[in-house]
């Protein structure tokens, strides 16, 4: 009976635009999605012309065998990171910003994590929207700013209504994209010897293995760190592994290596026209839809980070749908006026700052296991712990040190260097007892402790 007044306190939230998508609570088990719905969400992240371009770029500077090795290295690195972090998100039903309250950073530290993630993701949303607008303008005409605005509005409208509708969109776009791409690639390669393309020398300047692996693994590392945003809707750990591994196989081996062959064929990384020229207007539409399907996750992850940031810093719970509108408008306007392209260097720096967050999460959750105990105690009840550590200064110091290694050390893969440094430092110092939380914070927002009432008041669909 105690849940009734809590439900009444959160009832007005149902009048807000869109879905809050359990931004500050666990995703209940009965609201999680089935295997095939989640698989299509994962595969949708592989459906991008940019991955063909990446493969072609690597193919111009590497033999097919060396490219295969580079993609293997990148895929293995990404899969390990995604599974280690994504499994934690699935077990707890929490997105990365909320997870870090009890896994490594504490309440105030999670606000800092949320801010970095939110800025990075909304920034990349704007950058991708700019690329989207410029590409459409070049293909069909019209000013690029107009296409930026139209794309931004469409993606924002989709993300407002949350994971359920993003999953529906994936079910439509993913099969269309790969069917169209398969037709285009087969039509292009059928008149050429596959064996000759595989054994042909790279047509351009040689690319070192480390550089290629950096492009492959580093380019998606931020997405790997925020994988709990998706995996919190999974029902089983085996699903997380199978779906993420399927995405890696499709993205790296099928899409990426096909791009390598196309690069050897045309002796250039300009291969997007192959897909577009053989599939007509329908192909252009599908490609644009698939690009939007990838960019919606940038906006979605950013909205979750902002919600947690405001709750911690200002003590206010703001609806995720409302946050999405504000972020979507900001990213769309900045992309339309052409400002976002000037921030790519800054966003690249954040790309080195985010991997250490993943290293700390993995080290605390799977190795040290001291701060996560309150999550273990409340997991079955699907509630959140009533208290969390306030600060974990050593985690911030480890974060800074790992960032410096990733940024200033020239060898290896920067994103992986920073992640590995954070994991090793936190594991060693944590097991030695040097990573200590300071202060205790109470969940002072009623909505946080009313997680069991959320399914009755927040219309998020199951599979």
Automatic annotation (TrEMBL):
<feature type="transmembrane region" description="Helical">
    <location>
        <begin position="240"/>
        <end position="265"/>
    </location>
</feature>
<feature type="transmembrane region" description="Helical">
    <location>
        <begin position="39"/>
        <end position="62"/>
    </location>
</feature>
<feature type="transmembrane region" description="Helical">
    <location>
        <begin position="415"/>
        <end position="435"/>
    </location>
</feature>
<feature type="transmembrane region" description="Helical">
    <location>
        <begin position="206"/>
        <end position="228"/>
    </location>
</feature>
<dbReference type="Pfam" id="PF02133">
    <property type="entry name" value="Transp_cyt_pur"/>
</dbReference>
<feature type="transmembrane region" description="Helical">
    <location>
        <begin position="111"/>
        <end position="132"/>
    </location>
</feature>
<feature type="transmembrane region" description="Helical">
    <location>
        <begin position="346"/>
        <end position="368"/>
    </location>
</feature>
<keyword id="KW-0812">Transmembrane</keyword>
<keyword id="KW-1133">Transmembrane helix</keyword>
<protein>
    <submittedName>
        <fullName>Cytosine permease</fullName>
    </submittedName>
</protein>
<feature type="transmembrane region" description="Helical">
    <location>
        <begin position="144"/>
        <end position="161"/>
    </location>
</feature>
<dbReference type="InterPro" id="IPR001248">
    <property type="entry name" value="Pur-cyt_permease"/>
</dbReference>
<feature type="transmembrane region" description="Helical">
    <location>
        <begin position="168"/>
        <end position="186"/>
    </location>
</feature>
<feature type="transmembrane region" description="Helical">
    <location>
        <begin position="389"/>
        <end position="409"/>
    </location>
</feature>
<feature type="transmembrane region" description="Helical">
    <location>
        <begin position="321"/>
        <end position="340"/>
    </location>
</feature>
<dbReference type="InterPro" id="IPR030191">
    <property type="entry name" value="CodB"/>
</dbReference>
<comment type="similarity">
    <text>Belongs to the purine-cytosine permease (2.A.39) family.</text>
</comment>
<keyword id="KW-0472">Membrane</keyword>
<feature type="transmembrane region" description="Helical">
    <location>
        <begin position="271"/>
        <end position="289"/>
    </location>
</feature>
<feature type="transmembrane region" description="Helical">
    <location>
        <begin position="68"/>
        <end position="90"/>
    </location>
</feature>
């Amino acid at each position: 009976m105690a849940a009734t007044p809590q439900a009444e306190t959160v009832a007005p939230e149902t009048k807000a635009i869109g879905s809050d998508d359990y931004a500050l609570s666990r995703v209940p088990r009965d609201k999680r999605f089935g295997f095939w719905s989640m698989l299509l969400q994962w595969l949708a992240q592989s459906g991008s012309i940019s991955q063909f371009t990446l493969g072609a770029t690597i193919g111009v500077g590497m033999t097919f065998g060396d490219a295969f090795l580079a993609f293997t290295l990148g895929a293995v690195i990404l899969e390990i990171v995604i599974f280690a972090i994504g499994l934690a998100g699935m077990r707890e039903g929490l997105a990365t910003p909320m997870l870090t309250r009890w896994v490594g950073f504490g309440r105030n530290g999670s606000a800092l994590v949320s801010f970095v993630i939110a800025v990075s993701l909304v920034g990349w949303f704007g950058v991708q929207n700019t690329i989207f607008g410029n590409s459409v303008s070049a293909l069909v005409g019209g000013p690029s700013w107009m296409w930026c605005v139209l794309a931004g509005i469409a993606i924002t409208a989709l993300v407002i209504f949350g994971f359920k509708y993003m999953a529906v969109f994936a079910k439509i776009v993913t099969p269309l994209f790969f069917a169209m791409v398969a037709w285009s690639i087969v039509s292009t390669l059928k008149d050429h010897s596959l064996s000759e393309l595989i054994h042909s020398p790279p047509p351009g300047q040689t690319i070192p293995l480390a550089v290629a692996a950096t492009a492959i693994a580093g380019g998606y590392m931020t997405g790997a760190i925020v994988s709990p945003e998706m995996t919190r809707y999974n029902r089983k750990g085996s699903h997380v592994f199978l779906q993420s591994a399927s995405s890696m196989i499709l993205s790296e081996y099928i899409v990426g290596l096909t791009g390598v062959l196309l690069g050897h064929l045309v002796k250039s990384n300009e291969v997007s026209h192959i897909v577009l020229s053989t599939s007509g207007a329908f192909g252009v539409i599908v490609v644009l839809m698939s690009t939007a399907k990838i960019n919606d996750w940038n906006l979605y992850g950013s909205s979750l980070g902002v919600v947690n940031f405001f709750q911690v810093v200002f003590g206010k719970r703001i609806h995720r749908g409302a946050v999405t509108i504000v972020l979507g408008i900001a990213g769309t306007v900045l992309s339309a006026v052409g400002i976002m392209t000037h921030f790519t260097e800054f966003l690249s720096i954040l790309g080195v700052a985010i991997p250490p967050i993943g290293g700390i999460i993995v080290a605390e959750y799977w190795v040290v296991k001291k701060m996560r105990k309150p999550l273990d105690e409340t997991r079955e009840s699907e509630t959140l712990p009533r208290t969390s550590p306030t600060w974990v200064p050593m985690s911030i110091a480890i974060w800074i040190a790992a960032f410096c290694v990733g940024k200033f050390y020239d060898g290896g893969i920067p994103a992986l260097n920073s992640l590995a440094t954070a994991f090793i430092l936190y594991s060693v110092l944590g097991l030695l007892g040097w990573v200590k939380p300071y202060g205790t914070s109470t969940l002072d927002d009623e909505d946080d402790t009313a997680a069991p009432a959320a399914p009755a008041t927040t219309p998020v669909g199951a599979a």
